[in-house]
């Protein structure tokens, strides 16, 4: 699915808009610990174990030097324990949490534990979120206190790691996943912001993210009418977790949208016919105007159905890709 380089509603946001970071990577690699370091607090569950502590998407925010950082932690890309339904749920939650789109796909890797399957990560991101997502992808090369940064830089020269990082068009950043020092967060954000400027100053978005944002805004409007005392932040929190997009039945939506398509052609034809009949009693030009109106009405219906199909197919494709890569690693 082609990406759209538009700022959406971000032009109306404060001088320092929210920065959305989507953490991705292999199970147990240290995504949650990295998220905690970025937000400078223990908000994501993290252990030293190689097993996954994250079974569902989680979004947490924190203010850093006047800018809101929103970090979305995700289950491992190679998490084989999730069922198809769980994968479906987490894909749509991930999209909803990052809507209207992430500013960076931050792929967490450990150079001393880098595997063949991790070499495919950028390709997976592209297949799930779109080809141009690689322009917004950065490798977060993590280490702990007992490892010198010079050792990490030397490890990055390994051909496999070097090739992987070259696929991340946002480059890489060496990061201590256990250190809460704000200077390393500052340096990371500096690199992310440089990448954002290079990409036109906007977040990465596709039709999936746009539809999720639309559903969130609709849900927020409904919440405002029912809970007047709720703040915009509280409303957004609730709306991101429960909206038409996250509750969508993507299996039936594709079938239903496809069935609707069959009636669109007939609708256009009926519109043309009605326009001609309406115009026939006046002059031929009237018939043309009426026919054009009929075509426009039918086309509008077709456009709506096309959006349903495109978004539904994209979500289902994302679910399929995630599960396909799961199968490869089993």
UniProtKB/TrEMBL annotation:
The gene is LOC116334507. Keywords: GTP-binding, Nucleotide-binding. It comes from the Eukaryota. This is AIG1-type G domain-containing protein. Residues 16-213 form the AIG1-type G domain. GO terms for molecular function: GTP binding. SUPFAM superfamilies: P-loop containing nucleoside triphosphate hydrolases. Belongs to the TRAFAC class TrmE-Era-EngA-EngB-Septin-like GTPase superfamily. AIG1/Toc34/Toc159-like paraseptin GTPase family. IAN subfamily. Gene3D superfamilies: P-loop containing nucleotide triphosphate hydrolases. InterPro entries: G_AIG1, GIMA/IAN/Toc, P-loop_NTPase. CDD domains: AIG1 (cd01852).
């Amino acid at each position: 699915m082609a990406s759209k380089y538009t700022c959406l509603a971000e032009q109306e946001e404060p001088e320092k808009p929210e920065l959305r970071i989507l953490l991705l990577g292999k199970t147990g690699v240290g995504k949650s610990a990295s998220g905690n370091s970025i937000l400078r607090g223990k908000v994501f569950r993290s252990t030293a174990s190689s097993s996954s502590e994250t079974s569902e998407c989680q979004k947490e925010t924190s203010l850093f030097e006047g800018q809101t950082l929103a970090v979305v932690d995700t289950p491992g890309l190679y998490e084989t324990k999730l069922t198809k339904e769980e994968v479906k749920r987490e894909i749509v939650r991930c999209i909803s949490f990052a809507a209207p789109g992430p500013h960076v796909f931050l792929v967490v890797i450990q150079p001393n534990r880098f595997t063949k399957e991790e070499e495919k990560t950028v390709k997976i991101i592209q297949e799930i979120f779109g080809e141009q997502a690689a322009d917004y992808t950065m490798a977060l090369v993590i280490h702990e206190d007992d490892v010198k940064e010079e050792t990490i830089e030397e490890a990055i020269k390994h051909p496999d790691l070097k090739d992987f990082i070259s696929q991340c068009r946002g480059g890489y950043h060496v990061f201590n996943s256990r250190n809460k020092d704000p200077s390393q967060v500052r340096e990371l954000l500096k690199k992310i912001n440089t990448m954002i400027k290079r990409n036109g100053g906007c977040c990465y978005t596709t039709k999936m993210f746009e539809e999720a944002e639309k559903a969130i805004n609709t849900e927020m409007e409904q919440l405002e009418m029912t809970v007047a005392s709720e703040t915009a932040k509280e409303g957004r929190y609730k709306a991101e977790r429960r909206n038409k997009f996250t509750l969508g039945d993507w299996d039936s939506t594709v079938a239903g949208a496809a069935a609707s398509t069959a009636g669109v052609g007939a609708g256009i034809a009926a519109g043309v016919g009605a326009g001609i009949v309406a115009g026939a009693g006046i002059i031929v030009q009237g018939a043309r105007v009426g026919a054009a109106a009929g075509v426009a009405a039918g086309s509008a219906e077709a456009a709506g159905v096309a959006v349903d199909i495109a978004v539904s197919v994209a979500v289902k494709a994302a679910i399929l890709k995630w599960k396909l890569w799961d199968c490869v690693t089993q």
